[in-house]
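# nightly structure sweep
# worker-07 picked up a monomer target from the shared queue
# config: single-sequence mode, recycle default, output format = structure tokens
# input follows
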Amino acid sequence: MAIRVMLVEDEAGIRLILRKIIEKHEEFEIVGECEDLAETVIQFRRQKPEVVFLDIGIKGQSGVECARILTDLDPKVKIIFATAHTEYMSDAFELYAFDYLVKPFSIDRVNRTLNRIAEMGNPKKNEADEKIVKSEYRRDKLLVKGKESMSFVDIPEIILIQRENQATAIYTEQDCYVTSASLSELEKKLDPEQFLRSHKSYIINLSRISRIEPYGRWTYVVHFKGRKEDALLTAEKYEEIKKRFL
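# output follows
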């Protein structure tokens, strides 16, 4: 059975773009389109979609409040915000969003979101997916707040995190994100099976390690696939890594 999708957007052009992209994915079926938030709740009850593309602001009404109502009706619904107003995304992202699309969004960006949902299977049939949206999303994304912006980083793409110059740098293959958050704060949001606090100044992604070399008597240097930066590793953590991979 196809995954049921509802589009909530007051711009007809955006709805058309989303519809054409979604229709190319046979795993999905569009079951409703709304441009009014009150009508959205009515249609949601009637159509019971598993995925909702939702504008964060429709005709002066709050898409965040609408998301609150929809997730109360069905905690498993996947809400994807499509918005030009990034200043509202922090609370929405943390509380309700499975993903977000900043207008003007690319076809490839929408396709990645749809593919991720399709790989998870139909939420109503997949027992392993019985979890509320906010928990599911926090395992996939990390919200990074900078001085004048905020970014949403795919956690599996993080290679290493380093404390430097009284700030914290998060490295992926393509980007570096700088935040004032401490390593301890970020460590709490990462899967300890995948990430290791290798040193007081570093957190590393174990799946991205290419080699480890001695650096002095009690320290090692960790090299990674995809970045020229490296990280320090204590002797104690070196032994921990050996036990994990043996």
